[in-house]
Amino acid sequence: MKTAIGTRENVRVIEDYQSGGLRIEILEYEKLMGLSDTTMAQRLYFMEKQNIRVRQIALYLNKDKVTIEKGAMSYYQGDVQMVSGVTAGNALGKFVRSAVTGEQMAQPEYTGTGLLVLEPSYKHFLVMELADGESIIVDDGMFYCAQGSVSVKVVSQKNISSAVAGGESLFQQQLTGPGLVVLESAVPVSEIDIIDLENDVLKVDGNFAVLRSSTLDFTVERSAKTLIGSAVSGEGLVNVYRGTGQVWLAPTLKVYKELEFAAMVGTTGTPNMNTSRS
Question: pTM for the complete prediction?
């Protein structure tokens, strides 16, 4: 099968999306064929059995523009130019905001006609198409790339104490359409619950909400009206989402974190330094 990275029997296109002058392909490597270390080959064998595979994003531009996460570019060809996203008019504002929030000074933008291939990753990719004016807030570190028509900016939590108590980042990224967005996720879309709210309330025990509509209000509250009630329920504080919009939940994140911790400490209860993250 011919793909963006040549003719490879071990690479296939698992998803593709089109909007305006941008086409997105999600590529997946069936196997990594270049191993010479038997121990690593054994680990990869079991990873592949569990669908832990290398994936990659290919972006086909036709007189369009994309914004990508800093350091995500692998290679590009054709009539494509990279611009910094910083101009003389906005440089000072971006510098001040970067110093306060930790936001990158500028995210790379690529414009023109050609092919742009991003770095491979073991994570999963979630692709969304935002309508004109539709806006979402994504968990820290999830943004990977977006069509040029999508506004990408860093926003602060309205309630800092709630953010800290709820285990959320103080600063998150807000993406506003129209256009395609690619997010990097620790879990596949099959393990995400999409909750629709219409003038409703959602209470979540833990910080496994990976994104939400920016129309929703976020707070952290006691699970019951009284301290005794919270103690009886065993939940304590819960993350609360109010209003109309969507919340994307990844409940299995807790399981993966427990497995990761167990792998680190091993059976003796002490950290296992020979176990590295894949």
Answer: 0.80
